[in-house]
Amino acid sequence: MSVKAKKYLGQHFLTDEHIAQKIADTLSLKGYDSILEIGPGMGMLTKYLLEKDVTTYVIEIDPESVEYLQSNYLNLAPRIIQENVLKYDLNAVFKQESFAIIGNFPYNISTQIVFKTLEMRAQIPEFSGMFQKEVAQRICEKEGSKVYGILSVLTQAFYEAEYLFTVPPSVFNPPPKVESGVLRLTRKENYDLPCDEKLFFRVVKTGFQQRRKTLRNSLKTFNLSDNLKANAIFDKRPEQLSVDSFIELTQLIEKDIE
């Protein structure tokens, strides 16, 4: 595949065997029997996943990469899915069963992959992979940081997020202009929210849309009572609230708008 084509796909292919194996080893292999690798390219990470005692599937949109994988990984061929992962119904393969996600994710769809994982969290107990470093850090960041935001809160509501290690541009073809970071998400034992889930998502997204304002100002569209807005939590900016505080805020709003 040409460098131009790789850039078009938003993918930078890993060329370092040691790092590929290190990423493959980030999964615990507990709580599921299958792995889905997203964007395998030419199989640098795939070959190490195939050594694991689980069933590996891959999903790849690029026809040239699919042809290469079919020719070079014959045992994998029946489990190569040539589709756009964001549009494909993964239960066509997994049938409501649990599976893990892993990959060197294309930068241009990496956050969308996380959101799809959150939607399917009941089936995905573990997730690990490589992102642009600043995106990986944002997902794992805690409250009080300027990079803590929507992605941080929504992911950490359901998963424990760990930033594992940084990967330099020199081990990719073509080399990206930024560093990459590998993270792992481990689903929480209790991943059901004690509040209205849709409202929680709306509160988090609305709050961070005007992150420099206090919640009293950024959440005006909810038409909350003056009594509720007098609560000290509304004096804070969204980046100051932990995940638990956002849940508490949602519960307060839920009662107020009933």
Question: Secondary structure elements and their pairing?
Answer:
Blueprint (H helix, E strand, L loop, with lengths): L2 H6 L4 E2 L2 H8 L9 E5 L7 H4 L5 E5 L3 H10 L7 E2 L9 H4 L5 E5 L5 H10 L6 E7 H8 L9 H7 L2 E9 L4 E2 L6 E8 L9 H13 L5 H4 L7 H4 L13 H14 L2
Parallel strand pairs: 2-3, 2-5, 3-4, 5-6
Antiparallel strand pairs: 1-8, 6-9, 7-9
What are the defining features of this structure?
258 residues; alpha/beta; Rossmann fold; Helicase, Ruva Protein, domain 3; 7-stranded mixed beta sheet; 12 helices; elongated
General description of the model:
With 258 residues, the chain is of the alpha/beta class. It is built from twelve helices and nine strands. It has a seven-stranded mixed β-sheet, sandwiched between helices. A two-stranded antiparallel ribbon has the order 1-8. Strand 3, helix 4 (63-72) and strand 4 (80-81) form a beta-alpha-beta unit. Mean pLDDT is 94; it is low at 1-9.
Summarize the structure.
With 258 residues, the protein is α/β, with parallel strands linked by helices. The chain is built from twelve helices and nine strands. Helix 9 packs across helix 12.
